[in-house]
Task: structure prediction
Amino acid sequence: MTLDIAGTLLTASVTAFFVGAAGSFVDRRVGYLASTAGSVGLLVVAVTVLVGGPVTGATWSGPLGDAEGLSVDALSAFFLLVASIVWTATSVYSLAYDDRPSPLLAVTYSLALGSIALLMSASDQILFLIGWEAMTLASYGMILQARGRSERVYSAAFVFLAFGEASTLFVFLAVAGLWAGTGTFAFGPHLGPGTLATLVFVSGLIGFGLKMGIAPFHMSEWLPIAHSSAPSNASAVLSATLTLAGAYGLFRTVSLLSSPPLWWGAVMLGIGAISALLGALFASVSEHTKGLPAYSTIENNGLILVALGVALLAESDGLTALAVFAVFAALYQALAHAVAKTGLFLSAGYVEHTVHTFDLNSVEGSVKAGSPGEYAGTLAAVLSLAAGPPFAGFVSEWMILESLFQSYRFAQSWVQFVGLLSGAAVALAAGLILVAMVKFAGFSVLWKPHSSPPIRRAPGLGAVVAAVGAIALAVGVLAPWVLGFLAPSASALLGTRVSAPVGSLLSVPSGWSILSGSPFGILSPPMIPLALLAGAAVGAGYCLLGRPRPRRRATLWMAGNPPGQPGQTYTSFGFSTGIRIMMSSVLGTREVRESQGPVAVAGVHAVEPYSVDLEVFDSFKLFYAALVRMGDGISASLKAWVMPGRLGRYLAYVLVVVLTVVIYVAAAY
Amino acid sequence: MIESSELPARRPGTGGTHPELALAYAADDGSFAVYNDYSAGRAVFRPRSETPPPPEVAATWRRTRDGGQVRPVAPADPVEGYGLFTFPYGPISMGVPESGRFDVRTYGERILALVPVAGYKSRRILASVCGQTVPDAALRIERLAGNFSAAHATAFLSAAESAAGASVPRGELWVRALAQELQRVYNHVHVIARVAEAASQNVGTAQTQALAEEMLRVQGSVFGHRWLFGALLPAGPRRRLDAGDRRDLSNVLRRHAATFDRLWELFLGSRTFVDRIQSTGTVTPSLAKEWGAVGPTLRACGVPWDDRLRVPTSPYTDLFLDLPQESGGDALARLLVRAHEVRASFLLIEQLLDRWTTTPEALEAPAPPVAPSRALGRVESPSGDLVYDVTLSGDRVASIGMRSASQANFPLFARGLRDGVFTDFHFAWESFGLVFSEVDG
Result:
């Protein structure tokens, strides 16, 4: 009986988004409230599935005779769980955030959420594809709602659509391959190894990778968000859950393919490591309050891919323990990233809302001046993304690095080598993302303002960010139990029943520690805050019980100068210029100097005033520019050849078609 | 909150300083100027109106003489751009041993423009000596910059003697030359030690610093004061250098010269050291001439100018001086020049001790004054050309002007470091051998 209630709730929740989208035309709050309700409903469904087992909602017979409908198994439950946490936060946030006169943002927002919910709870591939395509279109509409120069918004939205449709094409290919191999659109039967499986894997990796924004498709992730300065609730949904949909697709594809060859995992691992490194590198030199988190998403999705790659490699090599650990690492990474990234985007939205800027150089600590919830929540999100203990990101980063440390277990030396290089790249990415996160926190949260600017307070926004930060903390501290909760999802992915890599060592209570391998590494997330608290208690006791010391107050100074003079402190740009110069071979850093009018003072000694700009360049842009040029060329020559504008030629086409049909029909009978 | 101008700022100097100094030296009461005629290789006097100094140079020089004011001592480069900010380095920061500030215009890491700001170290010494007798004034003047005390004392005394028209005993001139050369060796070794320290050449730094300390001890044993304070006054405390003393001194210095040669050989063999100073803080010859660079900075740009040769005075007229010259214009070239000069100075001291004057009481006529009771004293200090312009009234100083090597070279340091990175700073700074106290007075 319980399951029936859950099934009804699933159907109702998915429907709620679409009803909300329609209701938004009346009042945009209807849309956001319906989205909140739907998200909470999905959260309940996901928890029910993870605890009790699969839930099936409405089912119907599809046009091809297959059974279609909504059903959630343990794997999709995990992704629905993550997505619904994010959506609950963003929907509540949107109630206070969206103050536009037009309801279109609320409409497209609800539609995007609904279509992602649809694809994640689809029981078969057709519904999945419908949800996938609807998600792309709704997100396209959402990006178009951006404020800013319209040509930039249009071009960013177009880039998103172009990459989105390319992604859909490859996903179609993967689905077609699965159908050809198994004869059904239902998620269930496995496809054995062979050319068809390889086709499915490669198209799946490209198609879903496009949505995850992994290299070399990272343009699809950062460009629409940063270039258009998309609305912050939209940015959070795009960055945290649209890429999560890509991850879900990839996980689902992998779960449907049995006995993967070794090179699949190696390719996945390599691409993931490169994406992580590129994402972290570009995040650390980004000055855009949304561009920086968007690049960080590329890094995080790269890490998910790395963990999944290790899992595939370990599975091929028969290293079951490592495979299980890596799968848990991948799931945890997806969870940690989605939660923390939501916090960061919502914080950027708060900045946009209060000081009206996207430039980190001019944010000047406005978050600090805002509500304490905003302050604490942003810090928690940043710390989690920078893999700081005891936050969620720390646990997942530790798990991924631990699994890479074990690449020596692989049988082939070239696989070991790939693991080694990827490990180095991931470690470097972890270091670089620290720069990015310190920059974001330093210039938005920790900055000491010269003067207190008039700040529009928005406590509603702050409370949501604080809640997201609290979730990031809880997911980190309670990691062993969360891992146990996610065990059904990992089992669904691996196809066998597994339990979480949790145990005990030393005097840590049983079940409080995460074990990687037996025994390899050990981490007890709950012990970290306990140790911190114990240290703080000792310090507090010392301060309270010890003799009070005289206090001296002194004026702050800066090496003999009065402190905090405007224009005399590090800019956010200056903070990361070191990386721009050090990594100039990758970033293509170049300095552009432009003369600014005539020489100020006459004579040989005077220097003409000039402006200087240090630019970085993503060399992958060259690849896409070449692709566009090639496409233009082919289409132009095709046009000249096929569509010359002559009536005679067109009549000939018609004639040829008619003749072909006649011959075909005649031959058939 | 403290305003920056409030910090150590005092009233500007009122010590009757001359209103204008340019290039080598130009006393701007409309009367005359001294220029370095680089092509002819000698100093020339010219009426001011004939070749006035470029206005920016004159303006910068005026600023460098404004004792007591916190003010920039090099022109600012107008540069703007995304993410640019001004990073104030100093006046109380690690790395710069004196109180002085550098306003670095940067987008992080790269130095797009640099403006040295002086005035934090002003003691108004020049203003305070007006009205004092020449020996009393000399006691203060030599404390203006301890590292260059011999040069300052010599330049001031010779200017005062010329102004008074007083002949000087030959022995005094020889003692001044000995003191100057000893101090030159100390200074160059000290500069090399500080560059080595910036390059983290720890063993080399320690050994070079030990050698510098040895040179201070030699100065102390000969002149009774490690920094030569009071030693160059006619009644100053100093040992009579009899033949035995001279032999001992010669032996000690020969040992130090050998130590230096060995150390310098090791430094040049260290790629990390040479790489770090090569093409750091480069000054082009044209820039050096336009801005009137002096000393090793000028000679490192391929201009063979040295006051000891071009403005000859006794006893340098009787001695052989091996004048070094480099063409790189960078920190390495400046250090090569300095190392060469250490050897040349050891050679000069050897000559001095060998041919120690047999007639110390014989009088030498002073250089002619430029005006009644007013004369210039020009000396090659370790960092370059140092000019004193002294007007006497009776036996007391009526007014005094000074143009130090640091004043001349500060704008070149600022220019040379442009487009460098933060880590270049110390190599460039130390290689120029600049001293804020010489600018602040």
Chain B has one domain: 125-440.
